[in-house]
Amino acid sequence: MCNINYVLSRLLCCCFVNANKILRKSLSSILAKNVFNLNAKELLRLKNKNNERFLDLYSKELVLFFISIGIKPRDKILNQSTIPNWIWRDDNFLRACLRGLIDTDGSIFRMSNKNPNLLRICFTNYNIKLLNDTRDSFIKLGFNPSKIISNKQFFISRKKDIGKYLKEVGFSNKKHIDRVKDFLAP
After folding, report:
1. Rounded distance, CA 167 to CA 37, Å?
2. Which domains are seen in the chain, by residue range?
3. Which distant-in-sequence residues (6+ apart) come within 8 Å of 119 by Cβ?
4. Fewest C-beta in 10 Å: which of 21, 42, 49, 129?
5. How far apart are the C-alpha atoms of 53 and 55, rounded to whole Å?
6. Residue from 186, 166, 173 nearest 119 by CA
7. What's the rounded Cα separation, in Å, for the pair 178 and 147?
8. CA–CA dist 48, 127 (Å, integer)
9. Spatial distance between the Cα atoms of 176 and 19, rounded to a whole number of angstroms
10. Helices 91-105 and 128-140, interaxial angle, to 10°?
11. Three-class SS of residue 89?
12. pLDDT tens digits for the chain (186 residues)?
């Protein structure tokens, strides 16, 4: 057993405030009690005009669980955190992981005003290990990302890769979803 300084950490889960009350209760019940056997504190956070409800879990055991599956606590840049091995073994997990990474550290935009149908996905991160692994994940799934630029970002630019991303990976981030709808609207 390793000697770990037990720092309390938290796991945040989000749903919209207007979501069905039963859904919110079952999120709390299933995730907190049945999965982690923990009591959860529910927070209401107003952010960017979206009312979001967060489930906030604090636990030493939770930190140890995430460490055991390869997810390091605290600062991902200082830790050089990266994609855990178990995610690499399943393309469905890898697609879900990429969706989360692009949702949080990525963007989608038009490449040119001259041709509004040309879209580009950008991933920016200052953790070079995570940046390389994210790019390698795209390659493993059959995408053609650019080379890493300035040790901080790469792009998915080919039209067929953008279509493949939207079909096979997709976005969960409402801002990205809305941008794609705006870009693709007639």
Report:
1. 36
2. 10-68 (no CATH), 85-184 (3.10.28.10)
3. 108, 109, 110, 111, 159, 162, 180, 183
4. 49
5. 7
6. 166
7. 28
8. 27
9. 20
10. 130
11. coil
12. 233 333 445 555 554 444 445 455 555 555 666 666 666 555 555 454 555 555 566 667 777 777 787 777 777 778 778 898 889 999 999 999 999 999 989 999 998 888 878 899 999 999 999 999 999 999 999 999 999 999 999 999 999 999 999 999 999 888 888 898 888 877
CA atoms within 13 A on the CB side of 80: 3
Local structure of 46: helix, strand or coil: strand
Strand bridging mode 106-110 / 41-47: unpaired
Residue type at 97 in one-letter notation:
C
Query: In which residue are the tokens 């939207």 written?
Result: 166
Residue type at position 184: L
Q: Would you tell me how many other CB atoms lie within 10 Å of the CB of residue 30?
A: 11
Q: Where are the alpha helices (DSSP H) in the chain?
A: 21-27, 60-68, 85-88, 91-105, 128-140, 159-164, 174-184
Q: Taking the mean position of all CA atoms in its chain, how far away is CA 41?
A: 22
Q: How far is CA 166 from CA 108, 121, 177, in A?
A: 11, 10, 10
Determine contact, residues 162/121, Cβ cutoff 8 Å.
Answer: yes
Amino acid identity of residue 107, one-letter, is S
Interacting residues of 157 by C-beta distance below 8 A, sequence separation 6+: 111, 118, 120, 121, 146
* Structure tokens that stand for 100 in this block: 């989360």
